[in-house]
Amino acid sequence: MNRRLLALCLCAYPRSRRDRDGGYLLDLALELAAESGVRRQAVSLVSGGLLERARGVRRGPALLAGAVVAATLAVGGVAATAEEVEVEVQSCPC
Q1: Domain residue spans in the chain?
Q2: What is the pTM of this model?
């Protein structure tokens, strides 16, 4: 079950990165999950994957912050409402 959940979280990474490093990332996440928990590693994989995608797309910090918060709430199973989550988004001067 843990392996399947973490493998699903790897889908947040771009396909090229998954093909190249997917096995290594999954093994590392499984190893670290034994110490820090599966939920933490799942959130880490999803946020890392979203950051990789954002580096390739460069859409801006507001989209990235929203995606990271949404993924954290969805994958982490955190029982929080929109009113309980605060995200500070600063505009990029670029």
Answers
A1: 2-84
A2: 0.58
Burial call 33-63: b when 16+ CB within 10 Å, e when fewer: beeeebeebbbbbbbbbbebbbeeeeeeeee
Look up residue 22 and give its two tokens. Answer: 């997917």
Neighbours of 67 (CB within 10 A): 18
Over its length of 94 residues, how does the chain's per-residue pLDDT go in tens digits? Answer: 788 999 999 999 999 888 999 999 999 999 999 998 999 999 999 999 999 888 876 555 555 566 666 666 555 554 444 444 444 555 555 4
Residues 3 and 26 sit within 8 Å (Cβ to Cβ): yes
Chain centroid to CA 92: 22
